[in-house]
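Priority: low. Protein: DUF397 domain-containing protein. Input follows.
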Amino acid sequence: MPHLDLSDTHWVKSSHSSDGGECVEWAPAAHPGLVPVRDSKDPQGPALLFTASSFAAFVTVTKSGHFSEV
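Result:
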């Protein structure tokens, strides 16, 4: 995986997230084919890198309700 400088990255949070909530953020345009994901409570912390296709699959499964709250 390449090292990405994410210091000027535009991060996106789900519209279903509340302010101060426990959320993840992603950066859809950070690098072609890769989607960085980070903890919104720790914006200076590490980011995980996923392939765009893996992230799209995760979003699809999540929207289907497969990962419901317990």
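Strands lie at 12-13, 24-26, 34-39, 47-51. The longest helix spans residues 52-63.
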